[in-house]
Amino acid sequence: MKRSILISLLLVGAVVAVIAGATTAYFSDPEKATGTFSAGVIDISVDGENPWEGSFDLADLKPSETGLIEFTIHNDGDNPVVVWKHIGNVVTEGGVTTEPELDDDPSDTKHDIDTVTNYDLSVDSTVIFADEDNLSVDDIQSMWMPVGTIPGDGDLDVTQSYHMRGDTGNWAQGDVMTFDIDLYAEQRLGSGPDQLSSKLFLDNKTGEPDWYFVADDTWGILTWGSAASLHAQGLQASTAYSLITYAEPWPGTVSVLANGPSNASGNLDLAPTMPATYTGKIWLVLSADTDGTKMTGWNPTAYLFESNLVSIP
Predict the structure, then answer these.
(1) How many beta carbons lie within 10 A of that of residue 130, not counting itself?
(2) The pTM is what?
């Protein structure tokens, strides 16, 4: 009997040892992926040229006549791009001198036909600047303005007109104006091209997350230097607005540069007090949406935003 019990205990011990030494297994399904990183492409062409080497000649314009410059911008990449344009390097010269010109300007020193040539701009048949806005080439030169967003493999048709005002005198006979047309394309949500002058174009945008500039006749032009001024149009009618500097993060650090109401047509003219030095954002917002130190409301469809970061001086 004692021997049987001993053998049984040895067998039990052997079974326990086997169980204790066994490996535990679980159901599983391992997976592995590979990753590839590639940079996107931002590339545009104009009228099928890349690089663009276009040249335009608006010759023999007389008072009340208009010359057109038209071109098509194509997005050669797959990514949506925002396109800005500006007219720079404006040079006016005397050109041909005539007897009537000397009668009007005996010293033949008045050649600034850029001040009497209205500039109109349309994008895909949508008017941004109209002749009745009475903006001259001198008013908009060296100011980057967004003209629209182009999807991948998409097009944007740009039409510019140059209209010599009907009251232009004989002093302008034979005078010549030359200028450059520059385009800049950037991915969405970029800060825009570098500022070239003391002029800033302000525009309305769509909402988050895309923040596209809207090609329409709602815009503003801010100038500064010896005297600062803001003209805006297409705003809410008879509404109080504030021109502010804005620094992130929300609700921001705000400094008010000017306050004033739009008129019954939605136009607004202000004489802001500009800072001596400043780099950052400038917005035109509803006065009801700021307490002068921060934003207290958010109605972006009623605002105008800077088209590129401001740098003063």
Answers:
(1) 15
(2) 0.83
| Residue 220 tokens, joined | 């503003």
pLDDT score recorded for residue 208: 80
With beta carbons less than 8 A apart as the criterion, state whether 151 and 73 touch.
no
**Would you tell me how many other CB atoms lie within 10 Å of the CB of residue 220?**
25
What kind and span of H or E run contains 108?
Answer: none
Output phi, psi for 68, to 5 deg.
-110, 145
- Residue 288's alpha-carbon distances to 78, 245, 253, in angstroms, are 41, 16, 16
Q: What angle do CA 286, 306, 225 make, to 5 degrees?
A: 100
Asked whether the beta carbons of 183 and 44 are under 8 A apart, the reply is yes
Could you give the CA distance from residue 84 to residue 112 in angstroms, rounded to a whole number? 26
Question: Under CATH, which number does the domain 40-189 receive?
Answer: 2.60.40
Residue-wise pLDDT for 207-265, tens only, equals 887 788 888 999 999 999 989 999 999 999 999 999 999 999 999 999 999 999 999 99
